[in-house]
Amino acid sequence: MAEKILLNEYKALAKETWTNISLIRENIFEWSVALVVLNPDSHYYGGYYKAIMKFPRNYPYEPPDFRFERPLWHPNIYPDGRLCISILHAPGEDSMSGELAGERWSPVQRVESILISVISLLDDPEVSSPANVDAGVMLRKDPEGFKERVRQDKEKSKGDIPADFDMPTHESAFRKSEADKVEPNFSWSDSEAEDDFGGSESDEEMFDDEDEDTEGDA
Predict the structure, then answer these.
(1) What distance, in Å, lies between the first and last C-alpha atoms of the chain?
(2) pLDDT, tens only, 33-57
(3) Most buried one in 42, 113, 119, 166, CB count within 10 A?
(4) φ, ψ at 151 (rounded to 5°)
(5) Is the pTM of this model over 0.85?
(6) Which helix (H) or strand (E) holds 217?
(7) pLDDT digits (tens, 9 = 90+) for 114-161
């Protein structure tokens, strides 16, 4: 089931302009993802931020791992590129952090919601509990210095922009027009995917089927 869900999500996101995705070694459980910030007021506007996403075999019941490939100066990004963001935390409430279950991962979340949450975090850092304390302090006490550090990272990120990728520049580029939409460059055909992953039933039908199976086993 995880393979089928991820393939459907991959094909949908491959049509978007605000992200650029590909599979690593044609493995549906490992994605190369690049994000583009479309808010011109953001310090991160104009950058091309590459990351790696690794999905568990029981996705969507557990969240994927997300890590930026290049260092990115931000209060909520660890020096190794990992994110401190609630949506990627395991399901359920956490009394230690104070996070509610609704703020954390749940099976109804999808890759698109993760990526949009990451972009929102870039636009609006959470400085009360920073992963990068130095970045959080600089943002509060030296905003111009913070802006310069981000600019340096942003300029480096532009070196990762592929020659065949058209960088969007504003919010209206969130979705291509129907005429511009193209199928993703993916080696599996639709018929092969349906054979491998059991047809084209909806996610809801799959969850219903799994619930029925579980009840039968009980």
Answers:
(1) 21
(2) 999 999 999 999 999 999 999 999 9
(3) 119
(4) -60, -40
(5) no
(6) helix 203-217
(7) 999 999 999 999 888 899 999 999 999 999 999 999 999 999 999 999
- Angle, helices 111-123 vs 2-13, to 10°: value is 50
Structure tokens, 24: 């690593």
Bond before 60 cis per omega within 30 degrees: yes
Is 98 an annotated catalytic residue? Answer: no
Distances (CA, A) of 68 to 118, 130, 191: 11, 17, 33
- Are 70 and 156 in contact, with CB atoms under 8 Å apart? yes
Q: Which amino acid is at 40?
A: P
CA distance 181 to 196: 25
14-39: per-residue pLDDT in tens? 999 899 999 999 999 999 999 999 99
Q: Identify the sign of the CA torsion 139, 143, 145, 149.
A: positive
pLDDT averaged over every residue in the chain: 81
Q: From the candidates 84, 138, 139, 150, which is the catalytic residue?
A: 84
Q: Could you give the domains of the chain?
A: 2-173 (3.10.110.10)
Instruction: Give the C-alpha separation, 153 to 147, whole Å.
Output: 10
Q: Return the DSSP state at 43.
A: T
